[in-house]
Amino acid sequence: MIVAIDVFSCPVWPVHFRGILGGDATPRALMRQGDKGRYHSGPEPHLGKIDGFGSMTLIATTLASGPGWTASEVVCSAGPTDRSFEEQHTHVAVAVVLSGTFQYRSSRGTAMLVPGAVLLGNPGDGFECSHQHSIGDRCLAFHFDPAFHENLIAGVRNVTRSRFECASLAPRQTDPALLACADHGVEAPQRLEELAHELVACVALAGTGHRGASFRTGRMARRGAARVHDLVHWMEASPQVSPSLTELAQRASLSPCHLLREFKRITGTTPYQFSLALRMRQAARLLRQGNSSVLDVALDAGFNDASDFNRRFRQMFGMTPSNYRRASDARTAALPY
What are the residue boundaries of the HTH araC/xylS-type domain, all occurrences included (predicted)? Predict the structure, then answer.
């Protein structure tokens, strides 16, 4: 879950930035602390006791930073019993949800964020995050100084506004390969500076003046939402499985029509599209991290037809699986968008 308390934190808990980093650390000091392309590893110090509620597990790892930007892997373990708090963004926030689900409410709208969704925040915007139906999430969070972000936007054609007009982007509104690229960025921090620029351009083109996958909480069918949450977690845990809509509906105890409607309303995409993105993400990870043949990777990712896998992989990543592996091995980062 992403934070508004300057660079990173868990929005479920009201914390001070110095409480995270300790000492005299400030967001601006963090932004200025290293040269362009400086990379970090290791978890940030524990939050400790907060507001009398005790401590919670929160691991915020700064992966890379430079003048005006920082990238962090943020893992939150808050759940339905944890109280949420209203906060305010102080930097431009752009975060890719890697795993888990949570609710994000800001002055720009309300959305249920799932893997592949992108959280957006303008400096000064109020927001609140909560886990109504699940426990925990993991995100790759970028935070930018406003001036730095405006300079990035200035380089994007056909985009004139730097402020976000919506709270988030659903997976279907971004590049299909975004999840795999974010995974690669976490694994290879030297990739993150380039990814930051690409992500800002991607979000600017997709999100300016566009509504994300948002809805009114009062109209939300809580029972259906809880079942969709459970289904998303099951699909995420078994990316190699490619169940039919009927099988998914049976698992969720909903009719296929009801499931399709609720799933798309909550996640912004269809069960099939969501499953395909997870399987492609799994395939990309296997190609980067192992030496298995392309056929074995296809089978492990739930594809029974190698030619179909190659075709879909090329459509999503702009290159063949073999070329993707070579590019990753060479650290050329020749990835899409």
Answer: 229-327
Into how many domains does the chain fold? Answer: 2
d(CA 164, CA 93): 10
**pTM score, two decimals?**
0.60
pLDDT per position as a tens digit, 185-233: 898 887 788 788 889 888 888 855 433 333 333 344 567 788 898 899 9
| Phi, psi dihedral angles at 101 (to 5 degrees) | -140, 150
Written as six digits, the tokens of 249 are 């509906």
Q: How confident is the model at residue 222, as a pLDDT?
A: 65
Residue 119 lies in a domain: yes
What are 131's two structure tokens?
């886990």
Instruction: Enter the DSSP assignment of 299.
Output: H
Domain contains 272:
yes
Q: How far is CA 325 from CA 110, 185, 290, 320, 321, in A?
A: 38, 15, 9, 9, 6
Structure-token pair, residue 112:
């249920």
How does DSSP classify residue 84? P
**Measured torsion, CA atoms of residues 127, 129, 132, 136, in degrees rounded to the nearest 10:** 170
Q: For residue 323, what are the CA distances in angstroms to 223, 297, 306?
A: 45, 14, 15
The pLDDT of residue 291 is 87
**DSSP assignment string, 36-80:** TTEE--SBPPP----TTS----EEEEEEEEETTEEEEEEEE---T
pLDDT number for residue 6: 34
Using the structure block, give the residue that is written with the tokens 């390969």. Answer: 177
Q: Give the CATH number for residue 157.
A: 2.60.120.10
Task: Please give, one letter per residue, the 3-state secondary structure of 231-255.
Answer: HHHHHHHCCCCCCCHHHHHHHHCCC
Are residue 165 and residue 240 in the same domain, yes or no? no
